[in-house]
Specification:
Layout lengths: L5 H7 L4 E4 L2 E3 L5 H9 L3 E3 L4 H4 L18
Parallel strand pairs: 2-3
Antiparallel strand pairs: 1-2
Length: 71
């Protein structure tokens, strides 16, 4: 849908999650990607997830299931 080179993915923080056919969750610092998605007609949800992005995670990472061993 939107082409980026590898270096640009890291710089522009290309980390989004599809909610449905026209809605994605991104984050507010993802300015370039958000603009392009909105120009394509997507609704872009931009919650403040700065606490996660500082650790290298993003919207997609925050959706992974958690599994824990029994204690």
């Amino acid at each position: 849908l939107i082409r980026w080179q590898r270096q640009m993915c890291i710089r522009d923080r290309c980390n989004v999650v599809a909610i449905d056919d026209k809605t994605v969750m991104s984050f507010k610092e993802n300015v370039n990607v958000n603009r392009k998605l909105e120009a394509l007609g997507f609704e872009v949800l931009k919650p403040d997830i700065g606490i996660f992005t500082r650790g290298g995670g993003g919207p997609r990472c925050s959706c992974f299931p958690l599994e824990r061993d029994e204690v």
